[in-house]
Design brief:
By secondary structure, the protein is an alpha/beta fold. It has two domains: 175 residues, 2-enoyl-CoA Hydratase, Chain A, domain 1; 229 residues, LarA, N-terminal domain (Rossmann fold). Helices cover 33% and strands 25% of the residues. It is built from 15 helices and 20 strands. The chain has a six-stranded parallel β-sheet with strand order 3-19-15-16-17-18, with helices on both faces. Strands 6-5-4-9-12-13 form a six-stranded mixed β-sheet, sandwiched between helices. The chain has a two-stranded antiparallel ribbon with strand order 1-2. The longest helix has 16 residues.
């Protein structure tokens, strides 16, 4: 049968023998709200674990909105104007408000990208700034957490009287789910802080994707509290990037409520592990630093020793701000951990992801189809490159035999596969 997969702004096709196909799986196609601004207004009027925004922000001299960047689908252009109007009603003028883009260690957004992501109205009304994780003069040292993480954070955010985080809640391989306090770490933290939390995540042998109670989430929450993040406004989106519901309130309480809905949207029951998993990186397509999120849901859906096929455009290549990562991705996870412990790797954020990728490669083979990553870089990543998705699948079938079982994940980075045999269905989320 013919199967279509999203690929950048278009689609690609692959033909799969019906007898081999377990199924084609996607996040649930939940009906979105009719009006995003109205939904945000509703959420603000129903705070979870906190006082209303107007009451919280009244009297603040300086306000910072920390919002995610263009690697996320959060409709900040429709959400932030509602926040600004609400703050204006509490007596806070636009001139007192700054949006800081939670880039983490991503590249700066260009001015045109900022206008597209945040909207001309927001850019006209308030200052919108890129966070610079490498600029020590723009960071402040807040000491260490009880777990020993060194915390450096954006100075302007720290000094603000009121801080609110804006993002979306989706499964994520590092803290279990993105959203909530993650807007601070790694969003507006320094490089060392991000390296240490990322390295904490790869102490587990498999990713923490979908695991709600884990050491990284605990650490991220602690960092956000230390920084003084007052509240969050988070959305849960459907597979088309449309808002289903918004959640406003306490950094932890509102996030936890959002996770319950996120689980319903993104957790997908699959009756058996596959020999071959064919996955699109959509919507995380810009570079492999985003597209690698395809690996962890695929890892949950494939048998040990199986094959994962990643289809990703990656127009900006492997990693714009971590280009040295290709120098270390040929090492195994044990070797990389040793190099980190002996201080042999300068970019420990990249080292953490290289370990995560190595753990997947040690469990299964990875094939890649990408216009932006050629055969040489694919080889450095430890992947096998193919020109077309059909070529990759045909090779996988030759390797695994005519009876190989195949699963397709159409929006893999935002999915949470749960192996649930039909004879004995289960509803618990996976734990590593």
């Amino acid at each position: 049968m013919k199967v279509e997969l999203p690929y950048g702004k278009g689609k690609i096709e692959v033909r799969i023998p019906e007898k081999n196909l377990i199924g084609v799986y996607s996040p649930k196609d939940v009906r979105p709200v009719a009006d995003v601004k109205r939904e945000v207004t509703r959420a603000l009027a129903n705070p979870i674990g906190s006082k209303p925004l107007r009451e919280l922000v009244r009297g603040a001299g300086k306000v910072v909105i920390v919002a995610d960047d263009n690697t996320r689908l959060t409709p900040t252009d429709r959400m932030i104007p509602v926040l600004l109007d609400e703050m204006n009603a509490a007596g806070v003028r636009d001139a007192q408000i700054t949006v800081i883009i939670a880039l983490g260690t991503h590249r700066f957004m260009t001015q045109s990208e900022i206008v597209e992501k945040f909207g001309a109205d927001v850019v006209r009304r308030v200052a919108v700034k890129n966070h610079d994780y490498k600029n020590e003069s723009e960071l402040i040292d807040l000491g260490t957490t009880p777990n020993g993480t060194h915390v450096t954070v954006n100075r302007e955010a720290w000094e603000a009287d009121f801080k609110i985080g804006v993002g979306s809640i989706v499964p994520h391989h590092i803290p279990g789910f993105a959203g909530g306090a993650k807007i601070v770490q790694p969003g507006i933290c320094g490089e060392r802080t991000t390296a240490e939390t990322h390295l904490l995540s790869v102490k587990a042998q498999r990713s923490l994707l979908g695991v709600t109670d884990n050491p990284v989430r605990t650490e991220v929450n602690d960092i956000a509290r230390r920084v003084g993040l007052n509240t969050i406004l988070n959305t849960v989106l459907n597979r088309n990037g449309e808002v289903i519901e918004a959640f406003f309130g306490d950094v932890v309480d509102a996030f936890n409520e959002g996770v319950k809905l996120s689980q319903k949207v993104y957790a997908t029951e699959i009756p058996e592990e596959a020999d071959i998993v064919l996955s699109s990186s959509h919507p995380c397509d810009i570079e492999f630093w985003q597209a690698h999120k395809t690996l962890y849901p695929s890892d949950l859906a494939v048998k040990a020793g199986g094959i994962v096929i990643v289809a990703t455009p990656c127009p900006e290549g492997v990693a714009m701000t971590h280009q040295d990562i290709l120098e270390v991705t040929h090492h195994d996870a044990c070797g990389l951990r040793g190099m980190v412990s002996f201080g042999q790797l300068q970019d420990e954020v990249a080292a953490a992801l290289a370990i995560a990728w190595a753990q997947v490669k040690e469990r299964e083979s990875v094939y890649i189809v990408s216009d932006g990553i050629g055969p040489d870089d694919a080889k450095k990543l430890g992947f096998t490159h193919f020109e077309t998705i059909q070529d990759a699948l045909d090779a996988a079938l030759r390797a695994k035999g005519d009876n190989a079982r195949i699963t397709v994940l159409t929006h893999a980075p935002d999915m949470l596969p749960v192996i649930a045999p039909l004879a004995n269905p289960i509803h618990n989320l996976p734990r590593p």
